[in-house]
C-alpha cells in the first residue's frame, strides 16, 4: 500500500483502460445525510439503537438479510419485508440531501471529458442507485455501466461483493486486470483485490485494514492523480491552488481553531475533507477575512478532526470564543500527518501569499 505521496505511478503491469466507482461513501456522502434514520425508526417501536451493534456494519449483506437481522436483533413486530417497506421512504427522503464528496464531481467530469470508460457498481439496489444519483446533474449520463446488487447473480461466500466488479468490467468491455477500482470500504477493497484489479481506497475514517490490499489509500478524491495510472492529468489547477465546490461550516472560533457550537463545525465536515484549504471567514455581518484552513485528523477527539484557521491579511488575533462561519473555496495540498503550525514560518507565509493571490481571482469568490 502507498499513500498518495508515496505512490510513484503504475508503470508496470496492465494499463488502466476503465475505472469502476463505488457510490455510497466514495462519491456520495449518503451516510451523513441519512444519519439518525435508524434511530428515529426504532423509536417508533420503543426501541433504542445499540451503537455497539451498529458500528459493526453489515457490509456485504443483501438488503433482505440485513432486514432479517434487524428485526431479530431489536425484536421488532415486523417481517423483514415490512421493515424494508417502512424504513425505505425515510432513507429516500434523506438521499435528496446527500452531497457529492470532495473531488467527486471533478473526477467524474474529467473522465467523461477525456473518454475514459467509467462504471458505477454499488451494493444498493439499482432502483436506489438511480434515486440517489438523480439529484446530481449529469451523473447518470457519465457512467457507461451502472450496476446494482440486484443485477448480479449470487455466488459464495459473499455473493455480490466478490463478483460485482468483474460484472461491471465485463459490461464495460474491459478486462478485469485493466480496471482501476475506487472504493471506500474494506469489503469493497477485498472484492477488487480478489478480482485482481488495481485499487484506490478512500476510506471514510482511514481504515487501517485497507492498507495491505489497496495500491493507494487517499484521504480524499482531491488527492487522486490520474497520471500516476496512465490516465490523462487534470488541467484545472490555477497556479498552486484548485477551485473546489464550496464547503460551508459554522462553529466557535477558539484558540485558532473552529470548534463545535450549535452547528457542529467538525461534524458538518465530510469525512473526505482533510488537507490545506483556502477560503473566507465571516465573523459578523460586516467583517469578512481571507483565510487558510488546515484540516487534520486528530484521533484524540471524538470528532477526530481539527480545523485550524489562519487569517491571511490580518496581523491581529481575533477575539476568542466567537461564532465564525467559513466557506472553503480552494484546495492547496494534502494532509501530511503534521499540524500546519509545526511548519516553518516561511512556509506558512508562502501558503498565505498563495491564498491571498488566489482569493482575488473570480474562481475563488465568496458565495
From TrEMBL:
Keyword Kinase recorded = yes
Record keyword Kinase present: yes
Query: Which is a GO BP term held by this UniProt record?
Result: glycerol biosynthetic process
Q: Which residues form the Riboflavin kinase domain?
A: 272-334
Keywords linked to the UniProt accession: Kinase, Transferase
According to the UniProt entry, its GO molecular function terms are: kinase activity; sn-glycerol 3-phosphatase activity
Q: What top-level branch of life does the organism fall under?
A: Eukaryota
Entry-linked InterPro entries: HAD-like_sf, HAD-SF_hydro_IA, HAD_2, HAD_sf, PGP-like_dom2, Riboflavin_kinase_bac/euk
Could you tell me which PANTHER family the record lists for this protein? 2-DEOXYGLUCOSE-6-PHOSPHATE PHOSPHATASE 2, OS01G0757900 PROTEIN
Q: What is this protein called?
A: Bifunctional riboflavin kinase/FMN phosphatase isoform X1
Which gene name belongs to this protein?
A: LOC106778587
Amino acid at each position: 500500500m502507498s499513500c498518495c505521496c508515496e505512490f510513484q505511478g503504475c508503470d508496470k503491469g496492465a494499463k488502466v483502460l476503465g475505472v469502476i466507482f463505488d457510490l455510497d461513501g466514495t462519491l456520495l456522502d449518503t451516510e451523513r445525510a441519512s444519519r439518525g434514520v435508524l434511530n428515529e425508526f426504532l423509536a417508533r417501536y420503543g426501541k433504542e439503537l445499540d451503537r455497539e451493534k451498529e458500528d459493526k456494519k453489515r457490509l456485504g449483506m443483501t438488503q433482505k438479510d440485513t432486514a432479517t437481522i434487524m428485526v431479530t436483533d431489536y425484536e421488532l413486530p415486523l417481517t423483514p419485508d415490512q421493515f424494508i417497506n417502512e424504513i425505505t421512504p425515510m432513507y429516500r427522503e434523506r438521499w435528496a440531501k446527500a452531497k457529492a464528496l470532495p473531488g467527486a464531481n471533478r473526477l467524474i467530469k474529467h473522465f467523461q471529458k477525456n473518454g475514459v470508460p467509467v462504471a458505477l457498481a454499488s451494493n444498493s439496489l439499482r432502483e436506489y442507485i438511480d434515486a440517489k444519483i438523480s439529484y446530481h446533474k449529469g451523473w447518470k449520463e457519465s457512467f457507461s455501466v451502472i450496476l446494482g446488487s440486484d443485477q448480479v447473480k449470487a455466488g459464495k461466500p459473499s455473493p455480490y461483493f466478490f463478483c460485482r466488479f468483474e460484472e461491471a468490467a465485463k459490461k464495460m468491455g474491459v478486462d478485469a486486470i485493466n480496471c482501476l477500482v475506487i472504493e471506500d470500504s474494506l469489503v469493497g477493497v477485498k472484492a477488487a483485490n480478489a478480482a485482481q484489479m488495481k485499487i484506490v481506497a478512500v476510506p471514510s475514517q482511514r481504515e487501517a485494514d485497507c492498507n495491505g490490499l489497496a495500491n493507494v489509500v487517499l484521504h480524499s478524491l482531491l488527492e487522486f492523480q490520474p497520471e500516476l495510472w496512465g490516465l490523462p492529468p487534470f488541467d484545472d489547477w490555477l497556479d498552486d491552488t484548485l477551485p473546489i465546490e464550496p464547503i460551508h461550516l459554522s462553529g466557535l472560533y477558539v484558540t485558532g481553531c473552529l470548534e463545535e457550537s450549535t452547528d457542529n463545525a467538525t461534524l458538518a465536515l465530510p469525512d473526505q475533507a482533510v488537507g490545506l484549504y483556502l477560503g473566507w471567514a465571516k465573523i459578523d455581518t460586516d467583517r469578512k477575512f481571507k483565510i487558510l484552513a488546515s484540516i487534520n485528523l486528530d484521533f484524540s477527539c471524538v470528532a477526530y478532526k481539527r480545523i485550524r484557521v489562519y487569517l491571511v491579511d490580518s496581523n491581529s488575533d481575533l477575539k476568542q470564543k466567537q461564532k465564525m462561519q467559513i466557506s472553503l473555496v480552494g484546495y492547496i495540498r494534502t494532509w501530511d500527518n503534521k499540524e500546519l503550525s509545526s511548519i516553518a514560518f516561511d512556509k506558512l507565509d508562502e501558503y498565505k501569499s498563495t491564498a491571498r493571490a488566489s482569493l482575488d481571482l473570480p474562481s475563488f469568490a465568496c458565495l
